């Protein structure tokens, strides 16, 4: 998935679930600057981090990648 799409999806879920960047970064064990880079599309999250994000948001990895899958099918 493109970094920008990951970032948009993660940011959207973060806001939907009521997390601040600081709170989510703390839960993930990463710095706010790294989370910011991911949300801006400047860094692709590693698979392990994607798994943690999905667990924290209580969504499936498929839900996090929904837009990506749709784009790939087109």
From TrEMBL:
Q: Which SUPFAM superfamilies match?
A: lambda repressor-like DNA-binding domains
The source's superkingdom equals Bacteria
Q: Where are the transmembrane segments?
A: none
Identify the residues that the record assigns to the HTH cro/C1-type domain, covering every copy.
10-64
Which terms does the record give in the GO molecular function aspect? Answer: DNA binding
Q: Which UniProt keywords apply?
A: DNA-binding
InterPro entries from the UniProt entry: Cro/C1-type_HTH, Lambda_DNA-bd_dom_sf
Under PANTHER family, the record lists: DNA-BIDING PHAGE PROTEIN, TRACRIPTIONAL REGULATORY PROTEIN-RELATED-RELATED
Instruction: Please give the name of this protein.
Output: DNA-binding transcriptional regulator, XRE-family HTH domain
> From which organism does this entry originate?
Fictibacillus solisalsi
């Amino acid at each position: 998935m493109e970094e920008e799409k990951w970032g948009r999806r993660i940011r959207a879920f973060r806001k939907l679930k009521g997390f601040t960047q600081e709170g989510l970064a703390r839960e993930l064990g990463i710095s706010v600057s790294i989370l910011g880079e991911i949300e801006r599309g400047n860094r692709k999250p590693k698979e392990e981090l994607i798994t943690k994000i999905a667990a924290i948001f209580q969504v499936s990895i498929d839900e996090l990648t929904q837009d990506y899958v749709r784009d790939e099918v087109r």
